[in-house]
Design brief:
Blueprint (H helix, E strand, L loop, with lengths): L12 E6 L4 H4 L13 H14 L10 E4 L3 H13 L8 E2 L19 H4 L1 H9 L12 H12 L6 E5 L1 H11 L18 E5 L2 E4 L1
Parallel strand pairs: 1-4, 2-3, 2-4
Antiparallel strand pairs: 1-5, 5-6
Helix pairs in contact: 2-3, 6-7
Length: about 200
């Protein structure tokens, strides 16, 4: 069980948004750090999430808005901020929020991997938190870089990032979520994850 992280003060709220859908998401192709653009569904999801945050105006406008540097996350943030009637480019990026690198799996269809890399599939099933693809990262690696980012968070933040980052943050910050849970945690693209004081909710 992962206790609430000591590096995130209990009075700070994270509003976490996964980027909108891409064509690779739609076909279940491993994306990782490949810079794949949003599709029309993804742009609509980004607008929906911005509208979900409108009920928190005007306070939410004073939050720190930060995104992964990949194009799909920056475009999601611009659309989200537009739905809040905020300047689309009024945010910063942080490379520590980038998605897991899937190494030799990046660009492969999930359905093809049992044939292309049966040993890798078996390794991931045996230990999905620590298994690392060739040339890539595992969730333990991701947790280390997110720890460094969390240490810089000093106020409520709207974060646009990725599915793997969403899972890792819940393991680090939400009471009752453990490493074994991480790979199966849902990562919707049309809901806002709210984390505060060791608990979570959805908007």
């Amino acid at each position: 069980m992962a206790p609430a992280s000591p590096v995130l003060p209990p009075d700070i709220t994270l509003y976490f948004v996964r980027h909108g859908e891409t064509d690779w998401n739609a076909t279940r192709r491993y994306q990782g750090q490949a810079d794949i653009p949003l599709n029309d569904v993804g742009r609509a999801q980004a607008r929906r999430n911005g509208e979900a945050l409108r009920g928190l105006l005007p306070a939410i406008a004073a939050a720190d808005f930060v995104a992964s540097p990949l194009g799909r996350t920056q475009d999601t943030m611009r659309i989200l901020r537009g739905a809040l009637d905020l300047a689309p480019d009024g945010f910063r990026t942080d490379p520590r929020l980038v998605e897991l690198h899937y190494g030799h799996w990046q660009g492969q269809l999930q359905s093809d991997l049992p044939r292309l890399d049966p040993a890798g599939v078996a390794g991931r099933q045996a230990d999905p938190f620590h298994w690392r693809p060739e040339g890539g990262e595992n969730y333990a690696d991701l947790t280390r870089r997110l720890t460094g980012w969390l240490e810089t968070v000093t106020r409520d933040s709207v974060v646009v990032s990725h599915g793997g980052v969403s899972r890792a943050l819940r393991c680090m910050l939400v009471e009752g979520v453990c490493e074994a849970d991480v790979p199966s945690l849902e990562v919707p693209q049309d809901r806002v994850l709210v984390i505060r004081g060791g608990t979570m909710d959805w908007l």
